[in-house]
Amino acid sequence: MENFKVGQYPGKTKVATKEEIIEKLEQTYRKKNIQMLGFYSSDLDCIIDDPAFMLVPIDERMLNRSHGVFDSMAITKFRFFRLTQHLQRFENSAKKVGIQMPMSIDQIKEIMMDLASFSYKKLYEQNNQADLEGTVLNIRIWLSSGRGDFGIYSNDKKPIFYACTFIPTTPYDKLKEGVKEFTVNLGQHEIENIQQAKSISYLENAIIANASKSKGGYLGIKVDENGFLLEASIASIGMVLKNKEFVSPPADKIIEGTTLKKCMQYIEKELIPQGYIKAAERRYFDLQYVHENVQEFILFGGDKIIPVLQLNDKQINDGQKGPICQMIQDWFKNQKQDLGDELVDVSFLKNEKNN
Length: 355
Ligand SMILES: Cc1ncc(COP(=O)(O)O)c(C=O)c1O
Fold this sequence. Notes:
Strand 11, helix 8 and strand 12 form a beta-alpha-beta unit. The protein has 2 domains: 18-175, Aminotransferase class 4, branched-chain amino acid transferase, N-terminal domain (D-amino Acid Aminotransferase, Chain A, domain 1, 2-Layer Sandwich), CATH 3.30.470.10; 218-333, D-amino Acid Aminotransferase, subunit A, domain 2 (D-amino Acid Aminotransferase, Chain A, domain 2, Alpha-Beta Barrel), CATH 3.20.10.10. The mean pLDDT is 95. The strands form 5 sheets. A 6-stranded antiparallel sheet has the order 3-2-7-6-4-5. The protein is of the alpha+beta class and 355 residues long. It has helices spanning 18-29, 61-65, 83-96, 105-126, 172-175, 188-196, 203-214, 258-271, 287-293, 323-333, and strands at 4-6, 35-41, 46-48, 68-76, 79-80, 137-144, 160-167, 221-223, 229-232, 236-241, 245-248, 279-282, 294-301, 304-308, 310-311, 314-315, 349-351. The structure holds pyridoxal-5'-phosphate (PLP). Pyridoxal-5'-phosphate is lined by residues 205, 231, 234-236, 255, 257-260, 300-302.
């Protein structure tokens, strides 16, 4: 890049100073619908008493991948109800989704006790006439598989324990007199909506990715109850068959990949007319079908086209990147502006030579 002088940031969205950040956090997050009394994060290893700062980082895996577990319990009459049982469930849940405890259960218990006692003290200081013994507190605890990037794996991350005490607003006095209920049976359409949405429910994907990664794989490929390959943990899949067909699973149970969709245009507009590919189709296939028919197996995601050279320790074709994958990669790299692309305003970059 040539020498540039940096001018003004041209955007309308405010960039906050440190003081403004604190002011905004206080203004926005101090007001809650419930009273939050104390917060603990093992990353910070301290109790935070100001709700404005009871925050988790944006790269948290609980937020990005649903890769966390939690539990919740009541504290009434200065007593944790079934604390041991809740902690056993918490520990078991963590094991089930492959998250290591960052500290012992005894240490977690001690922190929870400290938070509870801190919360009672805070309530007493707020109102020394309050019926502390009759006040119902809640504590919610979380174990996250970590943070540090927005990636899919947690194998390389440090788990984080969080806890928060609060006064719940559930109107138990009213509820205990009785309620109405409804059964809800999610139909095929609603289930598919959930499967097709790029929701933050990536727990299954995160576990699949960790499992593949721990064996030396890359993303891990999800297989459904019928044995059909669906998609990789964060990419779509497609394969070129020995008979020159291109096949990819239908998008009814998975996320519609924009990278695959774009590459399909190239396959349809160029590779088929030029005879490199015979036809492109979306249909289900299982592992046996892959092993018997595959010529090239390709991952498509996040504007990356990645050849799979081995699947379950079996070489794909000659174990080298295939010519179709190479052509798609070359075409993709040389993409000119496309419908839907938008140019970023970098008018603040002023070429020194011309100024
Ligand atoms: C589960 C899943 N499928 C497919 C994709 C591919 O989508 P795209 O090509 O739009 O990045 C992604 C991308 O993150 C994904 O997470």
